[in-house]
Design brief:
The protein is globular and about 50 Å long. The chain is 86% helix and 0% strand. It contains six helices and no strands. The two termini are 13 Å apart. It is mainly α.
C-alpha cells in the first residue's frame, strides 16, 4: 500500500534523524563542549520539554488543521534546525553551545508534531489491517532509529559535524519524501 508506506517512510526517516541526536549528543556535548553529565541532563530535559509542549499543542491544533500540515510544520522545524546546525558545524569547529542547544531544542520540539501526526496518518492509511499497520509503522520506525543510534554515537563522538550530517540528511529526506508523496 503506497499511501501507507509513504507515511511509514516519512516517520522512519524522521525518527532516524532524531535518534542520531539521541545517540550522538551526549558524546558531542560532554566531550567536545566539556559539559558535565548533569548539565547534559538539563539540556536533554529542556529539549524533551519542548517535545512535550509541542505534543500538547498538536492535540489542540489537530481539530483545526490537517495531520499532514501539522507534520510538515514539525518536519520543517526539525529539518531546518538540523540543516542550520550542519552549516554552523561546517563553518565553525565549535559553534557556541547556546546556539547548538537552541537548535537541538528546535529539532526535538518539531518531533512533537512529527510523531503523533505520523502515527495517526499511518493508522488512517492502514485502516484495513489496523494491528499490522500499528506494529509495522511503530516497530519499523523505532527499529531503524535504534540501528542508527550506536552508529552516530560511535562515529559522532569526535565532531559535531558527524552528528549534524546524519541528522540533517535523515530529517531532510523525511521532509522531501513527505512533499514528494504528498503525505
Amino acid at each position: 500500500d503506497r499511501r501507507f508506506m509513504a507515511h511509514v517512510a516519512v516517520a522512519c526517516l524522521a525518527v532516524m534523524g532524531f535518534f542520531s541526536y539521541i545517540g550522538g549528543s551526549s558524546f558531542v556535548l560532554e566531550h567536545i563542549y566539556g559539559i558535565s553529565s548533569g548539565m547534559y541532563g538539563l539540556i536533554f530535559a529542556t529539549d524533551a520539554t519542548g517535545m512535550a509542549v509541542a505534543s500538547l499543542l498538536f492535540s489542540r491544533f489537530v481539530a483545526r488543521w490537517s495531520l499532514v500540515g501539522l507534520r510538515r510544520v514539525g518536519l520543517t522545524m526539525s529539518s531546518s534546525a538540523a540543516a542550520l546546525l550542519l552549516v554552523l558545524s561546517i563553518v565553525a569547529d565549535k559553534p557556541a553551545l547556546a546556539i547548538v542547544w537552541v537548535l537541538l531544542a528546535v529539532v526535538t520540539t518539531g518531533m512533537g508534531f512529527i510523531l503523533p501526526a505520523s502515527t495517526a496518518l499511518s493508522q488512517i492509511a492502514g485502516e484495513r489491517a489496523k494491528g499490522t499497520a500499528s506494529a509495522l509503522s511503530g516497530g519499523l520506525s523505532f527499529a531503524l532509529g535504534a540501528l542508527i543510534t550506536p552508529v552516530t554515537g560511535f562515529f559522532g563522538g569526535t565532531s559535531l559535524l558527524i552528528m549534524t550530517v546524519v541528522m540533517a540528511v535523515f530529517l531532510g529526506l523525511s521532509l522531501l519524501v513527505s512533499h514528494a508523496a504528498r503525505a
